[in-house]
Input
Amino acid sequence: MQHTLAFDLGGSSLRLAIVAADGRFVAFVRKPLSIQSADGVVFDVDPMVWWRAFVDGCKELAAVGHDLAAVTAIAGCGFTRTQVFLDGSGRAVRSAIPFQDSRSASLLKDMRANAPEEVRQVIERLGPYEPLSRILWLKQNEPDNWAELRKVVEPKDFLNLMLTGVAVSDTISQAPMVRALGDSRDDVLNALGINRHILPDTYSPFAPVGQVRKGLPEPLSRLAGVPVHCGSIDTWSCVLGSGALVPGLAYSISGTSDVSGVISDAAHAAQGLLTVEWGAGIWQLGGPSQGAATRLQWALDRFCPEAPTAQKLEAAVTAAGETPLFLPYLDGERTPWWDPNLRGAFLGLSTSHHGEDFVRAVAEGMNYLSREILSRAEQANGVRVEHVSFSGGLATSPAVCQLKADVLDRPVFVPGNSETGLMGAALIPASGDPMVSRTQPVEGTFYRPDPTRRRYHDDRFAIFQSASAINAEISHQLAGLARR
Output
């Protein structure tokens, strides 16, 4: 029987599963991870931590009787907009720079002011969360590491490299780099002083990139010769695994960070959103935000520290009463603002507010941001989506699921298997036809919007939009004071 070893590398954990051909999870293990920052601007993570977690996870699977020699394929996914810098032997020359990092902001500002015209045109299109911005930062600030650099890959590519010895990536993961460089890639790289060979070769997510090499530690030695498929970003894999990689549907994934978008059969564009080709005749329009579960955990820890997390969250989200309006830009924001200087705010505070009100406000604010992305994408596509497929850690909370349906005013579908990233990864080698894979039916639960809450959320969303615009100006003024 065919068994796939699937992995899903996230910012807060690595999940591993042995998945049978019928989609049944034969075994599952989760290894906690973290990404640290001292100032909310600079984030670093040692990519070898991911590999050690992978090895340890495989040891756990073997220790409880699962024979890795029965695995017939390996495929995975991982968080994206995270750069791993490799030397010629495949060793990381420094810590990886993950998706939250905005250290390149000051460099980009200086380059816009002082760079030659041909370079300035490229820099104008960049924000600090772009892969190219991190590469330019490395070139400017760490010349010794720059001299050793030979390849830049993403997190799941690093795990594939450790398994196979091959450093490549997939077309979806590399879309931000392709978009930044434009049609004149080599000319742009030459103007920036970057060797084009540091960019990895790209494959389809479904393509094999190599076989597990010999000499890996036990029990990975039992995987020698097993094909490893390229895989892709966690968002794409979650959408595939939830059955939502279909034109006319939308997705929302709330894990460490949040990402939302609409799937269509043609390329469309909207201000602040990312247009990415996700397959033959399949496009997504949307993008990631800076935080999801991390924002709610922040609120729970500060405003409701006395009860278990799940219990606190359900109680807060379902509580009645007046709620402040929360702008969820605690550490800057990516989609749709792409502004590292944005900061969050509670509006409409009074002395009557208590802890649960603040947590509920944070949950609402996160979903108002998702509604902003959905609204822009729907308008660009000229369609109203049938439903939103919701997955990730927060999708395990019925109260959060219902809140999302109410705020978005769309039916929200939650797959029965919450590990949609692993499900999507397992589908990669299980079908040679991507069209067959993504249209497989998925069992789950629908949450319908409460019509009695429509006007409440419509009104608050309109205020959220105008407050976000005003908050941007205030955030920049505060950032200017902080730099004095």
User: Anything to note?
Assistant: The mean pLDDT is 92. The two ends are 65 Å apart (CA to CA). DSSP finds 16 helices and 22 strands in the chain. The CA atoms of residues 171 and 202 lie 5 Å apart.
